């Protein structure tokens, strides 16, 4: 086959700050999947995009080309409409677990295709696999049936969705080109649009424990993703939320599932409840369900009943206890005063070193490992109070986890410390 474009010409266009046309973008993505564009050429292209950016039109076309590289699920036969949430990932971010059943308990359908964790942020599938028997892999037909019968499904994204993104993401991972906003936005949105949802709420995390460290970066990413979604006919909104301190009171697979169950029983940490209710309200509004008290279904058992159906439909056995770690280690407050810093990234790294996360894709995770804590920013504390508990099945992991937490907590004796806002901005209102 005679190829219509020269890869070198297209790389040179981006190197020299030019714009690629839609046909050029369609071709390079397709040719990359076919192996005609080599990895070293796509690496150069990714680096040119990272350095010189892309226009919004190019980003929309790039996303569409990645969607077209695979299958696109179709849930249009479902009534009510489908709505999903995507979080850019943070420490203790188990919101999907209470959120999907809560939204489904009001009659919307939630197709939540999720991933596994890599590094310090946990993956939803790893968390749910802490429940004895729970199955992450479903066929498209099983997904559709479950959406009809239960109204929610949380499962692994199949290999057929946006295969160009899979190949490109693995390449970006080893070429220093992950943090390019056009590439991050198109990567996330290609999978969400291919998944077939009619509406989407994005939770873009900002702060030490997040991908985006500054509010400006997070705002640009959120605006880009909202534009891509709306251009593809998916009603899309975004919240920017704080990830300077970890969310809730636990990081680690079974530990986060336990916390999700508390929230579904009308209890649990206030920040997790607030974020779950806010995201659910936004999701339901996008599919026309308004004028309701969203929190009520966390308190009256309806969201809990939906969770039980959702987990049992995927063979999860909630009557069996969640795994508990063989060893725990407490860390105590070194001073009295007010919590002035509680660093999300350090907690994420500690949980990872305790065995909750993986370093390479093929590693397994410990279901029971992780960190729990009692503190939050602005809280008063007395010297000697327990503030953090480390959990692991391998005692030898404690030292490196304790080292990660060395300067994670700062207790101030001076002026009072304001409690930070959880929701920092809204995009697409
Ligand atoms: N998550 C994704 O799916 N893609 C990226 O590029 C970054 C985070």
Brief summary:
The protein has helices at 7-15, 22-34, 39-52, 56-68, 96-104, 124-128, 140-149, 163-173, 181-194, 215-231, 253-264, 270-286, 296-299, 302-313, 344-356, 398-404, and strands spanning 83-87, 110-114, 152-156, 199-206, 235-242, 250-251, 327-332, 337-342, 370-373, 380-381, 386-392, 409-412, 423-427. It has 429 residues and is α/β, with parallel strands linked by helices.
Residues in β-strands, percent: 15-25%
Major beta sheet, strand line-up: 1-4-5-13
Overall strand count:
13
Distance N to C terminus: 47 Å
- Overall, the morphology is globular
User: From the 3D coordinates, which CATH architecture of the domain at 83-157 and 194-313 would you assign?
Assistant: 3-Layer(aba) Sandwich
Structural class by secondary-structure content = alpha/beta
Q: Give the % helix.
A: 40-55%
What value does the average pLDDT take? Answer: 95
CATH superfamily annotation of the domain at 83-157 and 194-313:
Nucleoside phosphorylase/phosphoribosyltransferase catalytic domain
Which spans of ≥5 residues are poorly predicted at pLDDT below 50? none
- Radius of gyration from CA coordinates: 22 Å
Helix and strand sequence: HHHHEHEHHEHHEHEEHHHHEEHEEEHEE
Classified by CATH, the class of the domain at 83-157 and 194-313 is Alpha Beta
Attached small molecules:
uracil
CATH fold naming of the domain at 83-157 and 194-313: Pyrimidine Nucleoside Phosphorylase, Chain A, domain 2
Number of helices: 16
Specify the biggest β-sheet.
4 strands, mixed
């Amino acid at each position: 086959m005679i190829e219509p474009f020269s890869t070198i010409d297209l790389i040179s266009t981006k190197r020299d700050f030019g714009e690629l046309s839609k046909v050029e973008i369609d071709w390079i993505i397709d040719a990359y999947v076919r192996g005609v564009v080599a990895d070293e050429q796509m690496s150069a292209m990714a680096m040119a995009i990272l350095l010189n950016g892309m226009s919004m039109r190019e980003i929309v076309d790039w996303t569409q080309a990645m969607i077209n590289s695979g299958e696109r699920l179709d849930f249009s036969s479902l009534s009510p409409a489908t709505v999903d949430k995507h979080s850019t990932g943070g420490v203790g971010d188990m919101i999907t677990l209470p959120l999907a059943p809560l939204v489904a308990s009001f009659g919307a359908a939630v197709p939540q295709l999720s991933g596994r964790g890599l590094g310090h942020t946990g993956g939803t599938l790893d968390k749910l696999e802490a429940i004895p028997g729970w199955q992450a892999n479903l066929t498209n037909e099983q997904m559709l049936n479950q959406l009809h019968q239960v109204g929610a499904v949380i499962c692994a994204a199949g290999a057929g969705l946006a295969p160009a993104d899979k190949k490109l993401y693995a390449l970006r991972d080893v070429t220093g080109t992950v943090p390019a906003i056009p590439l991050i936005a198109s990567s996330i949105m290609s999978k969400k649009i291919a998944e077939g949802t009619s509406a989407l709420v994005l939770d873009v995390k900002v702060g030490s424990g997040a991908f985006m460290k500054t509010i400006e970066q997070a705002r640009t990413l959120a605006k880009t993703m909202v534009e891509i979604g709306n251009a593809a006919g998916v009603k899309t909104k975004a919240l920017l939320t704080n990830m300077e301190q970890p969310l809730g009171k636990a990081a680690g697979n079974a530990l986060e599932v336990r916390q999700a169950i508390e929230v579904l029983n009308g209890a649990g940490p206030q920040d997790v409840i607030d974020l779950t209710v806010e995201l659910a309200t936004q999701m339901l509004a996008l599919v026309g369900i308004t004028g309701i008290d969203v929190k009520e279904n966390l308190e009256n058992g309806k969201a809990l009943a939906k969770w039980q159906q959702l987990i049992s439909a995927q063979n999860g056995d909630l009557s069996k206890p969640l795994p508990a770690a063989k060893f725990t280690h407490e860390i105590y407050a070194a001073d009295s005063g007010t919590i002035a810093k509680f660093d999300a990234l350090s907690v994420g790294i500690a949980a990872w070193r305790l065995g909750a996360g993986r370093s390479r894709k093929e590693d397994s995770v410990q279901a029971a490992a992780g960190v729990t804590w009692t503190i939050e920013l602005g809280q008063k504390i007395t010297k000697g109070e327990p503030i953090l508990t480390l959990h692991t099945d391998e005692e030898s992991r404690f030292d490196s986890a304790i080292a990660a937490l060395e300067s994670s907590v700062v207790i101030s004796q001076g002026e009072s410390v304001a409690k930070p806002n959880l929701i920092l901005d809204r995009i697409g209102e």
